[in-house]
């Protein structure tokens, strides 16, 4: 089916749209699954059996769906289980504990996801769009522009695949579970709000309706789509909000995050505070450190001042991220001395701060790098 509308970029124009992804079991709510199997001529209880195989057992081979009659399996697969994403390239780092995968969708769009296994936990970084329309100049994805939004099924597919691989012990360290999911891959999650929230609900729903991952292990990032942040408050999902700030002053943030011209620093921090205050969930302030651009100590002082001005500023946590530079870019990571000075100024002001463990520099680690190298 062809659609005449599509996602919007920062110019306000519609991006050239593509055919919609085929419908998958992961696009349906539990009620829709029951309705769909009965329309296929099957008894309603088959919906729970199918979901148990897919979400509880993480079984992708219908030959092993032994609680379904053999004659039923292929019609179910044909109707509800199209292949949404095909892995076309993988890169490994950290002795196999970090895996970055480039996926090709049905229409040729290429996206990325990353599995990062740490002692005692595993984090999955997933994409919500093919490309990104936010046009942040230091980001490989932003440089490539927006192709289209992902469907809920395509988003959940990335998590389901990682959960299956971990459960099967395909990563060093033996079988494991997914603990954390961060919407920090390709795309602006809030620009694909409906599909992202549908995916979050499936990821969070208890088995067999979903993957049963705690909402407190889910993080949704945004560069500052204020109306969507306010909408998220009313969703009754205790997910973590991550605000990609990158500069505490509007002059610089207008350059680093073009959306700032619509929702400035004050507006996005106010929205983040409202989210923290309403949900009692601490907001993560994401701040990529870029050499000689935003890493001055006075900017750390200004950031601390802005956070402390918003009520109980302990509900903010600053996550400093050394930039993974992209080939040919003028942007690069801060000097270690400037990074430490930035940390010191925040700590002296009493602001909780950490420096993110950056993995994957040797495997096109920056968001969008692998996809850019993989596209024809």
Quick summary of this structure?
The chain is α/β, with parallel strands linked by helices and 376 residues long.
Protein described:
The chain is an alpha/beta fold. Helix content is about 35%, strand content about 20%. The strands form 2 sheets. A 10-stranded mixed beta sheet has the order 1-2-3-4-7-8-9-10-11-12. Strands 5-6 form a two-stranded antiparallel ribbon. Strand 3 (about 110-120) and strand 4 form a beta hairpin. Mean pLDDT is about 90; it is low at about 1-5 and about 10-15.
Describe how the helices and strands are arranged:
Layout lengths: L29 H10 L6 H11 L13 H11 L4 E9 L4 E8 L4 E9 L2 E5 L3 E3 L8 H5 L1 E4 L2 H16 L12 E4 L9 H12 L13 E5 L3 H8 L6 E5 L5 H7 L8 H15 L3 E7 L7 H12 L7 E7 L13 H13 L4 E3 L13 H6 L2
Parallel strand pairs: 4-7, 7-8, 8-9, 9-10, 10-11, 11-12
Antiparallel strand pairs: 1-2, 2-3, 3-4, 5-6
* CA-based shape: elongated
Oligomer state equals single chain
| CATH architecture level-2 label of the largest domain | Alpha-Beta Barrel
Number of domains: 2
- Estimate the mean pLDDT confidence: 91
Per DSSP, the total helix count is: 12
Radius of gyration: 21 Å
How many extended strands?
12
Pick out the low-confidence regions.
1-6, 11-17
Structural class, by secondary structure, is alpha/beta
CATH topology of the largest domain: TIM Barrel
Helix proportion: 25-40%
Sheet with most strands: strand arrangement = 1-2-3-4-7-8-9-10-11-12
Q: How far apart, in Å, are the first and last alpha carbons? A: 25 Å
β-sheet strand percentage: 15-25%
Q: Give the biggest beta sheet.
A: 10 strands, mixed
Report the top-level CATH class of the largest domain: Alpha Beta
CATH superfamily of the largest domain: Aldolase class I
Order of H and E elements: HHHEEEEEHEHEHEHEHHEHEHEH
């Amino acid at each position: 089916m062809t659609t005449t509308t599509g996602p919007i970029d920062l110019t306000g124009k519609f991006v050239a749209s593509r055919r919609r992804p085929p419908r998958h079991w992961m696009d349906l709510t539990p009620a829709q699954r029951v309705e769909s199997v009965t329309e296929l001529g099957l008894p309603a209880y088959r919906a729970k059996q199918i979901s148990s195989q897919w979400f509880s057992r993480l079984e992708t081979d219908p030959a092993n769906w032994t609680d379904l009659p053999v004659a039923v399996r292929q019609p179910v697969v044909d109707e509800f289980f199209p292949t949404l994403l095909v892995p076309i390239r993988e890169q490994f780092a950290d002795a196999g504990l970090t895996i970055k995968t480039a996926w090709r969708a049905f229409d040729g769009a290429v996206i990325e996801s990353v599995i990062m296994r740490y002692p005692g936990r595993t984090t999955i970084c997933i994409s919500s769009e093919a490309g990104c329309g936010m046009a942040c100049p230091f980001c490989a994805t932003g440089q490539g522009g927006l192709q289209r939004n992902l469907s809920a099924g395509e988003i959940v597919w990335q998590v389901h695949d990682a959960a299956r691989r971990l459960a099967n012990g395909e990563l060093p360290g033996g079988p494991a579970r997914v603990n954390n999911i961060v919407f920090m891959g390709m795309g602006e999650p809030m620009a694909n709000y409906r599909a992202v929230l549908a995916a979050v609900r499936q990821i969070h729903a208890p088995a067999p309706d979903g993957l049963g991952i705690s909402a407190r292990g889910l993080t949704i990032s945004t560069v500052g789509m204020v109306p969507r942040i306010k909408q998220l408050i009313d969703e009754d999902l205790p997910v973590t909000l991550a605000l990609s700030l990158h500069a505490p002053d509007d002059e610089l943030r207008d350059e680093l995050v073009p959306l700032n011209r619509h929702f400035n620093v004050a507006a996005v921090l106010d929205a983040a505070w409202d989210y923290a205050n309403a949900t009692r969930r601490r907001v993560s302030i994401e701040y990529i450190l870029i050499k000689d651009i935003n890493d001055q100590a006075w900017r750390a002082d200004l950031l601390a001042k802005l956070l402390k001005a918003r009520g109980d500023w302990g509900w903010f946590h600053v996550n400093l991220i050394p930039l993974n530079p992209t080939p040919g870019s003028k942007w690069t990571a801060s000097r270690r001395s400037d990074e430490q000075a930035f940390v010191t100024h925040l700590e002296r002001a009493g602001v909780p701060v950490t420096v993110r463990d950056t993995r994957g520099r040797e495997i096109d680690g920056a968001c969008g790098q692998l996809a850019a190298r993989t596209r024809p």
